[in-house]
Amino acid sequence: MTARVLVLNCGSSSIKYRLLDMGDGEVLASGLVERIGEESSLLVHRGTSRIERPGSCATHAEGMRAVLDAFAEAGPSLEGITAVGHRVVHGGSRYSTPVLIDDGVEQAIEELSPLAPLHNPANLTGIRVAREAFPGPPHVAVFDTAFHQTMPPASYLYAVPREWTDEGVRRYGFHGTSHAYVSRAAAGLAGRSLAETNTIVLHLGNGASASAVRGGVCVDTSMGLTPLEGLVMGTRSGDLDPALIPYLVRTRKMSVDEIDDALNTRSGLLGLCGANDMREVWRRVDAGDADAAEAVEVATQRVKKYVGAYYALLGRLDCIAFTAGVGENDHRTRALSLAGLHPLGIELDPAANAVRSAEPRTISTPGSAVRVMVVPTNEELEIAGQTLAVALGQRT
Ligand code: AMP
Fold it and tell me: Which of 61, 245, 276, 318 is most buried per CB count within 10 Å?
């Protein structure tokens, strides 16, 4: 039997999971438990058969028990799985590669929680619960920040007092497993060796980030100390003038927590036009909503600015790869983000761009110097692959 890896992604109130056959990447089972800790939780399991079950999982431990029950009831069996891979949002400067989890790694993830207060504690809870539930297979932490650890100081340093930097204030970047997977897949789709391919990855989902990848190595990315910086997102502002914060404190008498919440959950597309789901934003644009039209302009212009900046940084650009919910599905966002870049050798083919497909594909003209493509991301497969490599390394 080929190796099978269980990938777990524990959020503050959810557990998402996927069981992968590493021979061919087939998804053997997937599912999620959502609304953990709320009045009624919901488990959806797609295994040998499908289960959809309301429940009352008060804790992640109960949620994990429900997942194990679902596997026992609706298959496939988890017996003999090779490894369990955990998505961990923040690995700080400490982790540039995935690691086998032991008590020390758990402690490090806990110590990094101030940098990702919404994510790391939930990831850690998931790890603790899963290690108890599955004591057999090795557990591996795969960090969202790890791929970006190759950035040079010119990219990761903020121009702030050195003592802040010494305490960990710097750009880390996120969505790293997606940027790693997509940049590799883009080189493959272009028929080029990864080492000789320069790519800008545009991960445009509810969260959004761009990265500049030279020969498979990340040289810059748009998210920073936290996932708030950079592109305009569903509910996050992305880049803004940091002086806005003292301004709000002084004029609106807002607390730090209120500002933090507003910039993370009430800004971005939602702040600009009242909708954070891109499909709804377009519905409003099509109905003549001026705010929605402006929201699209702000968001796509921001993408374009990053494309220009990263092109300059890379010096030579071979590929631009769109990925994630918006990047994979929204041809209008793709077209606006790259509109007018013909002089830079970036030329979309409108017909190819309009094709709807779940496959990786090229959407630039044959004459475009830069190959533009849509590459569906597969973070779970990337996490599973990295997990397996660590698990096998550990055994030999
Ligand atoms: P993600 O965070 O990667 O799951 O992406 C979620 C975002 O993708 C949401 O804003 C969705 O509205 C957007 N999305 C999904 N499908 C489409 C589509 N067909 N057209 C435009 N946006 C889409």
Answer: 276
